[in-house]
């Protein structure tokens, strides 16, 4: 017995020792993938020595003898810090995520293949100007130099994620960078979703469904069913399938995800220091690491510093010595869905403008980790590629015997958009910048510009040309066989807006489109945020860097200031105070708090929480009886709709009456019931004491790691969770998820912020939402996140001496013999 016990002890000790050894071995390999910023590497592909000087915040300052050498070093620096992110972005654009993630992401791969993102990227390589092709080639060589270095030095495969998601890392090609830009363009627009939702609303509520999404002054839409006489629809009111938020971000970006930004500038005569100021804050889904990466390049035309996206060799938002620029995704209608009739008895043909026509067809194979390969038959028509009905709720609006196709400004080869972005870094004034932006195709961008003499704004990209007789003007899916509904080509967006010398000396945009520009479509964007931004900038005659920072972090909700006096007009201060502890008293206390609230969506206050839950409950009560299950798919607040209902504009007050009940309910009754329901919900979550509730308890930013974020035991190491201020309607945008147990989870925000001061080159500032490194064990993985949450920044400088004086490390690249 003693012998058995001894052997059991030995076996236990041995197993523990083996486990510790394995953990140490795993730790060794994981730590090996952390780059050494003080190393010297001999690399092929550069013409002279290059320095990558890393600041204390891990911002690389790159110095080389030629532009090609500098872009080479940027590719190497991106790969050092974000290799896994870069390869995943590439896979997302290629439609190859299932090769590492498995069947769960097949839908994303299928959509990317059908949109032909990578095919069009490869076709666009030759469309770039010679300078951009050289930059793409040099950048790709830099990425590949680091991949080779990882293999030579056994540097833990380059990133710890590669141990859990085995991946043969293919060498980088210029087309890969163009594919990521295509993916970015597809992610920035939500027009497919909007068209599908309009169609579903029309089918569910033919008489008044347009009220929900219509903008003031927008012409009426035809009934969706009337566009397809005799069409049988699959069931427009059922809930659309939606992937989990983390699954939807498996590739960091996803088509139809949506993006926004603010961009504004003040001319020298409107600033305290006598130099132009510009602010920009591109707003995307929050991930860990974030989408953006800070960098400074010393090009032949001068120093350039700002925000990049790993995989793309360009400063997308930043400044050089004489020019600053900021990008804002323009809320234009750049996509149209077409419904194509398939020939009965012959699924290889569809109804074209001149009769039955054969689909263009090709086959592609998707490899699936842990599953069988999937062969796709990809079809396209004269209007564009056929989209699968299971995506984005499309199947709920398809008449039987029909398929949906997509026309999109970015759905083509020979796209010179990368040349516009690379050329922008070399431009020295607004005129040169506007000229080079003429090469932009997709995404459509509202570009804010500032130089030594003034400010301006250019709408860059392509916009579709629709005939005035088109039935829907792109707002609903249209019959693909009707020539009048088809695009008549594309036009440059700059034909709608180029303003390089505003009389006020101020330009400001949230991407919202002015209503007098029919070429741009009828989706105006968030006019509330646009008005708030213009108020903040116009309220001061003279601006400073600090006033721009304050505006960039503004958390006052113009929607709350508009809706609360309207919705609560007949609820404030009515009746005697109710007894303590009763629902009536709780309602009175909540209304008292809201009556004295200034609309600031502060994470530390209860009022934003009460307001947000109330408005969500109110909108749901208004539409539930009319829309049924479709009401659950209204994941965002439609303030213009609520305003229209409570003002009874065009008889919209009828929405407040519950159709199934005999009494006629008023909007005041519905508002009171919604408030009571909201307070009941919040009491069940946080207790009865209103004063102890906090917006930040529900509104928390979840920066999710697309690969590791849902793995138990690892997720708490790689995901970042922070309470945040703001909302989806504040200038400091902090959009919410809109569904699930916590619809107010903060999932989108300004993943990059920059304020550029041309009066003092070294007073410009910028920040990203997480940190520079994508390695969870690096101290730079999340070292910027708390500054970002508090609305703080780090300093940016074009002074080489300052960069070297505060260097954390200097990487030397030597030409290989």
UniProtKB/TrEMBL annotation:
Lipoprotein among keywords: no
A single GO molecular function term of this UniProt record: hydrolase activity, acting on carbon-nitrogen (but not peptide) bonds, in linear amides
Binding site for Ca(2+): 195, 333, 336
Pfam families: Penicil_amidase
Cofactor binding, note field: Binds 1 Ca(2+) ion per dimer.
Transmembrane segments: 7-30
GO biological process: antibiotic biosynthetic process
Keywords from the named record: Calcium, Hydrolase, Membrane, Metal-binding, Transmembrane, Transmembrane helix, Zymogen
Entry similarity comment: Belongs to the peptidase S45 family.
The protein, known as: Penicillin acylase family protein
Species the sequence originates in: Paracoccus limosus
Organism taxonomic ancestry: Bacteria, Pseudomonadati, Pseudomonadota, Alphaproteobacteria, Rhodobacterales
């Amino acid at each position: 017995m003693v012998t058995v016990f001894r052997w059991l002890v030995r076996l236990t000790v041995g197993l523990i020792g083996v486990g510790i050894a394995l953990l140490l071995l795993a730790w060794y390999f994981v730590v090996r993938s952390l780059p050494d910023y003080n190393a010297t590497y001999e690399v092929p592909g550069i013409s002279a020595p290059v320095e990558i000087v890393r600041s204390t915040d891990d911002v690389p300052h790159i110095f080389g003898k030629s532009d090609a050498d500098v872009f080479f070093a940027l590719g190497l620096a991106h790969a050092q810090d974000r290799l896994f992110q870069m390869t995943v972005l590439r896979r997302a654009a290629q439609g190859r995520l299932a090769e590492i993630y498995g069947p769960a992401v097949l839908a994303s791969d299928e959509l990317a293949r059908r949109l032909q993102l990578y095919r069009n990227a490869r076709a666009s390589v030759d469309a770039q100007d010679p300078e951009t092709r050289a930059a793409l080639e040099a950048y790709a060589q830099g990425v590949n130099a680091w991949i080779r270095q990882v293999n030579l030095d056994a540097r833990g495969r380059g990133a710890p994620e590669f141990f859990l998601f085995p991946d043969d890392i293919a060498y980088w090609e210029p087309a890969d960078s163009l594919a990521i830009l295509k993916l970015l363009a597809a992610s920035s627009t939500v027009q497919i979703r909007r068209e599908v939702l309009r169609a579903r609303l029309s089918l569910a509520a033919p008489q008044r469904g347009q009220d929900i999404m219509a903008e003031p002054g927008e012409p009426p839409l035809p009934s969706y069913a009337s566009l397809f006489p005799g069409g049988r629809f699959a069931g427009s009111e059922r809930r659309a399938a939606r992937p989990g938020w983390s699954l939807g971000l498996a590739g960091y970006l996803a088509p139809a995800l949506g993006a926004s930004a603010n961009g504004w500038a003040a001319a020298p005569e409107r600033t305290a220091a006598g130099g132009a100021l510009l602010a920009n804050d591109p707003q995307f889904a929050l991930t860990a690491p974030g989408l953006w990466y800070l960098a400074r390049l010393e090009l032949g035309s001068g120093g350039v510093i700002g925000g990049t996206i790993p995989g793309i060799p360009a400063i997308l938002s930043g400044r050089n010595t004489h020019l600053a620029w900021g990008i804002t995704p323009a809320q234009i209608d750049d996509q149209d869905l077409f419904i194509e009739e398939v020939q009965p008895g012959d699924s290889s043909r569809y109804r074209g403008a001149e009769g039955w026509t054969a689909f263009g067809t090709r086959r592609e194979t998707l490899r699936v980790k842990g599953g069988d390969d999937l062969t796709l038959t990809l079809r396209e028509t004269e209007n564009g590629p056929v989209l699968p009905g299971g995506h984005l709720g499309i199947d709920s609006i398809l008449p039987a015997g029909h398929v949906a196709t997509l026309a999109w400004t970015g759905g083509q080869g020979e796209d010179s958009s990368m040349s516009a972005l690379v050329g922008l870094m070399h431009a020295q004034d607004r005129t040169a910048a506007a000229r080079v932006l003429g090469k932009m195709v997709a995404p459509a961008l509202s570009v804010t510009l500032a130089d030594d003499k003034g400010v301006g704004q250019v709408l860059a990209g392509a916009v579709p040309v629709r005939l005035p007789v088109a039935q829907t003007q792109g707002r609903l899916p249209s019959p693909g066989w009707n020539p009048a509904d088809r695009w008549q080509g594309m036009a440059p967006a700059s034909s709608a807006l180029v303003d390089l010398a505003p009389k006020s000396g101020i330009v400001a945009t949230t991407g919202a489109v002015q209503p007098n520009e029919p070429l741009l479509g009828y989706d105006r964007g968030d006019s509330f945020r646009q008005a708030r931004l213009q108020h903040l900038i116009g309220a001061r005659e003279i601006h400073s860097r600090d006033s721009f920072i304050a505006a960039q972090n503004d958390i006052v909700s113009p929607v709350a200031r508009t809706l609360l006096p309207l919705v609560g007009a007949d609820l404030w201060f009515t009746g005697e105070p109710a007894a303590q502890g009763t629902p009536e008293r709780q309602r009175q206390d909540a209304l008292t708090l809201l009556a004295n609230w200034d609309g600031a969506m502060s994470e530390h206050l209860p009022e934003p929480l009460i307001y947000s839950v109330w408005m969500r409950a109110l909108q749901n009560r208004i539409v539930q009886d009319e829309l049924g299950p479709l009401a659950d798919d209204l994941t965002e607040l439609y303030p213009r709709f609520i305003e229209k209902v409570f003002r009874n504009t065009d008889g919209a007050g009828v929405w407040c009456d519950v159709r199934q009940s005999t009494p006629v309910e008023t909007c005041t009754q519905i508002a009171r019931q919604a408030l009571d329901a909201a307070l009941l919900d919040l009491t069940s979550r946080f207790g009865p004491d209103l004063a102890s509730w906090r917006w930040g308890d529900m509104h928390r930013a979840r920066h999710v790691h697309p690969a590791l974020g849902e793995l138990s035991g690892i997720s708490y190491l790689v995901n970042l969770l922070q309470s945040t201020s703001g909302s989806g309607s504040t200038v400091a945008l902090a959009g919410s998820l809109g569904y699930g147990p916590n619809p107010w989870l903060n999932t989108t925000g300004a993943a990059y912020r920059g304020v550029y001061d041309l009066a003092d080159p070294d007073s410009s500032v910028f920040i990203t939402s997480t940190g520079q490194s994508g390695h969870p064990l690096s101290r730079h993985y999340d070292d910027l996140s708390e500054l970002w949450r508090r609305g703080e920044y780090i300093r940016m400088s074009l002074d080489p001496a300052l960069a070297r004086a505060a260097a954390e490390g200097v990487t030397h690249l030597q030409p290989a013999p």
